Amino acid sequence: MCFFDSHCHLNLIKDINIIKLLNFLEIKKFKYILSVSININDFLYMYNNYFSNKIIYFSCGIHPNNINLLNKYELYNIEKFIIYKKVIAVGETGLDYKNNISKNIQQFYFNYHLYLSNKYSKPTIIHSRLSYKDTFNMIKNFDLNNFGAVIHCFNYNNKYELYKFLNLGLYISLSGLITFKNILYFNDLIKYIPIDRLLVETDSPFLCPEPYRGKINIPYNIIFIIKTISIIKRINFNKLCSYLLNNFLTLFKI
Questions:
Q1: Structure confidence by residue, pLDDT tens digits, 79-113
Q2: Quick one: DSSP state of residue 94?
Q3: DSSP 3-state assignment of 138?
Q4: What is the DSSP letter of 217?
Q5: Which helix (H) or strand (E) holds 224?
Q6: pLDDT (tens digit per residue) in 119-144
Q7: CA–CA distance from 99 to each of 29, 106, 109, 130, 242 (Å)?
Q8: Per the CB 3.0–4.6 Å rule, which of 48, 134, 209, 247 could disulfide with 176?
Q9: Would you tell me how many other CB atoms lie within 10 Å of the CB of residue 223?
Q10: Half-sphere exposure of 215 toward its Cβ, with a 13 Å CA cutoff?
Q11: Do the Cβ atoms of 209 and 186 come closer than 8 Å?
Q12: How does DSSP classify residue 242?
């Protein structure tokens, strides 16, 4: 049995020696860590510093909260970086309507990321917050059979939205949110996610799961997320780990 984290931000984990952390994760049977970029500088720093570590893989993209007029030229540089070795995904990209950035600009960036995913057959890592309808409508313009995509840190709270995403062919990734005692709707929704469309992530350093909520999150805490799912879905922990790993390898073509 081995573990993975399908979505973390190594460059944002502060006050922790990342090299020592990666060594610790290897000892704890972690085989794959996908470190997700939020802008080009973030990607380049991670790629240049952690490429040699055998368990690290990368995505390249611009997070909707990191969009500004100064990095519009960077958007077109993504194309040259996503063909780099060990870059297995495009993103993090998507729509976040809680921020104050123009919806039209966000949609322009998101569409370009989807275009690149389609062109190079690499899956898209999608951030969707308070933007279900537009996220859905933009994704459905593409054939996900060509590249695949995942809604990361899924946080919508009804079955209708879940099923609409699933019907497009999307994977659903769950984070430490599902362990929070004040967010109960996940207990119901998780039951309706097919096991072959399910992924897990820490989104480190954010969303540290119970029992360490409020602390700096690290990929090791994926174990608490898997345990929560195994209880809700009534699936043996080891079997669930195997299913989830297979989903990860399938989507990201490793």
A1: 999 999 999 999 999 999 999 999 999 999 999 99
A2: E
A3: helix
A4: P
A5: helix 222-233
A6: 999 999 999 999 999 999 999 999 99
A7: 38, 10, 15, 10, 37
A8: 209
A9: 17
A10: 13
A11: no
A12: H
